[in-house]
Amino acid sequence: MIKIGQYNTLEVVKLVDFGVFLYGGEDIGNILLPKNSVPAGTQLGDELNVFIYFDSQDDIIATTTEPLVQVGEFAKLRVVGVSSFGAFVDWGLVKDLLVPFSEQRRKLEEGDNVMLRVYTDKASGRIVGSTKFNRFLDNTPADYTVDQEVKVVIIEITDLGYKVAIENEHSGLIFKTESFGKLFVGKKLRAFVKELRPDGKISLSLQKAGRGKVDDLSDKVLKSLERKGGFMPLSDKSSPDEIFEAFRTSKATFKKTIGGLYKQGLIEITREGIQLKDND
């Protein structure tokens, strides 16, 4: 079944001057992929990975242009216009995405950058956005385990820390004491489940707990040094932001890691950075 507002792999069934038609199943039939989106050399029978949405005439259409967000996902998007129907945001496609007035937590204005959830409206079948994203979270039981790595996106900043959407399905919190690096609304990260509370709330960390985070980072540092010819201009004197940019970890964990590698005789620590030690 075709998934509107998401990527689908479809077969080319007809070639025309203005593009190609892809088979969308018995219910939908053939779907046009306009000429400007057709990959060079496309032939009958080829399978193409395309995004399916509605064009300005509300007809189902395909594109190879990558949208900024798909149905079921969260993203921070820019408002590019307002009409009597609602606000329109740029989601990377020719036709802008509508955020109806009924789906706005506050009245949106042109130029705003807003966090929203994209979904398919059941009544109209149209793809729309909503800034009332909390109602899309925690509608199913969470089935995570402590220390599990998950994909998250920051959806709100609170006094306690950073509220995130976990795997686009559940809400969680990265406490300020667990945060480091440049964090902002809309940023996508990989995090680790730290605690599953009895009340159903989930707290997360940006790094694994205990010894595991050091062991993983040690391996990453050594592999990075090998790729960079044995030297890297990072040390315990580097800023937290520089360290986070390179390894997505805190400065404290990085210092502990390179200290361990030094004690093992695997690296040298200099004023300029760290050097892979030649033990041959």
List the helices and strands and how they pair.
Blueprint: E1 7-16, E2 19-23, E3 30-34, E4 47-54, E5 60-63, E6 74-82, E7 86-90, E8 97-100, E9 113-120, E10 127-130, E11 149-157, E12 161-166, E13 170-175, E14 188-196, E15 202-205, H1 211-227, E16 231-232, H2 240-247, H3 251-263, E17 267-269, E18 274-276
Helix pairs in contact: 1-3
Describe the structure.
The chain is mainly beta. It has 4 domains: 7-63, OB fold (Dihydrolipoamide Acetyltransferase, E2P); 74-135, OB fold (Dihydrolipoamide Acetyltransferase, E2P) (Beta Barrel), CATH 2.40.50; 149-205, Beta Barrel (OB fold (Dihydrolipoamide Acetyltransferase, E2P)); 211-276, Orthogonal Bundle (Arc Repressor Mutant, subunit A). The protein is built from 3 helices and 18 strands. It has helices at 211-227, 240-247, 251-263, and strands spanning 7-16, 19-23, 30-34, 47-54, 60-63, 74-82, 86-90, 97-100, 113-120, 127-130, 149-157, 161-166, 170-175, 188-196, 202-205, 231-232, 267-269, 274-276. It has a 5-stranded antiparallel β-sheet with strand order 3-2-1-4-5, with no helix packed on it. Strands 8-7-6-9-10 form a 5-stranded antiparallel β-sheet, with no helix packed on it. Strand 17 (267-269) and strand 18 form a beta hairpin. The model has no long low-confidence stretch (mean pLDDT 89).
- Order of SSEs, N→C? EEEEEEEEEEEEEEEHEHHEE
Strand order of the largest sheet: 3-2-1-4-5
How much strand? 35-45%
From the spread of the alpha carbons, the general shape counts as: globular
Which stretches of 5+ consecutive residues score pLDDT under 50? Answer: none
Number of helices in the DSSP assignment? 3
Please tell me the overall pLDDT. 89
Question: Which second-level CATH architecture of the largest domain applies?
Answer: Orthogonal Bundle
Number of domains: 4
Question: What does the main sheet amount to?
Answer: 5 strands, antiparallel
Radius of gyration: 24 Å
Could you give me the name of the CATH homologous superfamily of the largest domain? Winged helix-like DNA-binding domain superfamily/Winged helix DNA-binding domain
Per DSSP E runs of 2 or more residues, the count of β-strands stands at: 18
What is the CATH C-level name of the largest domain?
Answer: Mainly Alpha
User: Which class of secondary structure composition applies to the elements?
Assistant: mainly beta
> What is the CATH topology of the largest domain?
Arc Repressor Mutant, subunit A
State the end-to-end distance: 59 Å
Classify the helix fraction into a percent range.
10-25%
